[in-house]
Design a protein that fits this description.
The chain is an alpha+beta fold and about 240 residues long. The chain has 2 domains: about 160 residues, Beta-Lactamase; about 55 residues, Orthogonal Bundle (Arc Repressor Mutant, subunit A). The chain is built from 9 helices and 5 strands. It has a 5-stranded antiparallel beta sheet with strand order 2-1-5-4-3, with helices on both faces. α2 packs antiparallel against α6 and α8 packs across α9. It is globular and about 50 Å long.
């Protein structure tokens, strides 16, 4: 059964996360600290990870609590599909009660079948209008997490995203404006491509995103580039 975190403990954990990130100057170390704090804070969690992702869907920094999380994450980026990428691209929390019965990422699910991972949550790191990555937590048992746990992870993600974005800005002050503009443009391109697929196939936003990610993986092409090609190849509707 999922457990709830007492409010006083929740406040302490959020304060700890803020403290860790406010005193850290390097993104690489910051994401490592954040992963450990998240794992220790959420009952039933055996591993946690943090990934910072650029506008093209590539990791720029990552932190994990152990080799299992590291391997599960690496497979997502090798295959171009998985809950962390979905949380980032859709800007929504992804909840999986039992990975063996979830059809959304068949290749990734098969690839991690021998790892002790059964349930998971992944929440986007939203810094203002920009999604800079995702948090994820794993459990060895099924049904460990619920909607309450998802809200909890989102509460951790909100201050963490703001502070991580600040650290990134300090590391690359001369590039931050261009990076933000690129990220916003990439997000708009992906959303427009998903809209085209939704209208064309009569599907919802998540299936459209999965279809787009499958195309990118099949073509070994960045998600933003595939999205732009789809938009360019779609005739403009005339009144």
């Amino acid at each position: 059964m999922p457990h709830e975190l007492p409010l006083d403990e929740l406040s302490r954990v959020i304060a700890r996360i803020r403290g860790l990130l406010l005193t850290e100057e390097k993104v690489g170390r910051a994401v490592e600290h954040l992963a450990l704090a998240i794992r220790d804070a959420i009952p039933g969690t055996v591993g946690a990870g943090v990934s910072l992702i650029d506008a093209r869907g590539n990791r720029t920094s990552s932190g994990s609590t152990d080799q299992i999380v590291l391997r599960a994450d690496a497979l997502q980026y090798e295959l171009g599909s998985g809950p962390c990428l979905t949380a980032w691209a859709a800007e929504e929390t992804v909840f999986v009660e039992d990975i063996r019965n979830d059809p959304r990422w068949p290749e990734w699910t098969q690839a991690i079948s021998k790892l002790p991972i059964r349930s998971l949550l992944s929440a986007p790191l939203l810094a203002g209008r920009d999604c800079i990555g995702a948090l994820k937590i794993y459990s060895a048992g099924t049904g460990t997490y619920n909607t309450g746990t998802a809200r909890l992870l989102e509460l951790f993600a909100t201050p963490a995203a703001t502070l991580l974005a600040h650290i990134q800005a300090n590391e690359t002050p001369h590039r931050i404006s261009d990076s933000l503009a690129s990220a916003l443009h990439g997000r708009d391109t992906i959303n427009r491509a998903c809209g085209i697929l939704m209208e064309r196939h009569g599907i919802g936003p998540e299936p459209a995103l999965q279809m787009l990610m499958s195309l990118a993986r099949a073509q070994s092409t960045p998600l933003q580039q595939v999205s732009a090609a789809l938009i360019a190849g779609t005739p403009t509707r005339r009144d």
